Amino acid sequence: MTKEERLQALNDWSKNTLLQTLHIHFTDVGEDFLVATMPVTPLVHQPLGMLHGGASAALAESLGSSLSNIVIDQSVNAAVGTHISCNHLKSKRSGILTGKAQLIRKGRTQHFTEIEIRDEKGDLICHATMTNVLINVR
Predict the structure, then answer these.
(1) Which one of 82, 97, 103, 110 has the lowest number of neighbouring Cβ atoms within 10 Å?
(2) How far is it, in rounded angstroms, from Cα 112 to Cα 102?
(3) How many domains are there within the chain?
(4) Residue 1 — pLDDT band, cuts 50, 70, 90?
């Protein structure tokens, strides 16, 4: 499968989910990383008009879980999140966020991923780490 086909499959997989609601769009993929964007609009604001931390966490978890699922044999296992930790480092009212998930450890039963979410200027908005476990689906 080409990179473009993998990205199209990921974006199709996201239809009718929270990812579609938040306008999360996968834009790049590699052997051990995945990139997606999310616009900062009132849809993802908290009542003070700033980016809601839960929206950043949703972007981070979407990246981490999706990355784990595309690097395994999905006919045997599924990757499910068991822990996510987010540090919200800078507020944002508008613009485009880009998140990049990088596998730090790809074990047989557990994956550990680091996710950085940056704005269009490259400023770090959120830093997250995530643990996924692989469960048998047979």
Answers:
(1) 82
(2) 9
(3) 1
(4) confident
d(CA 33, CA 20): 21
Which residues are catalytic, by number? 61
| pLDDT per residue as tens digits for the range 54-106 | 999 999 999 999 999 999 999 999 999 999 999 999 999 999 999 999 999 99
CA distance 91 to 99: 15
Find the domain containing 90 and state its range. Answer: 3-136
Tokens of 97: 């966020």
pTM: 0.96
3-state secondary structure of 50: coil
Which tokens is 48 given? 């003070």
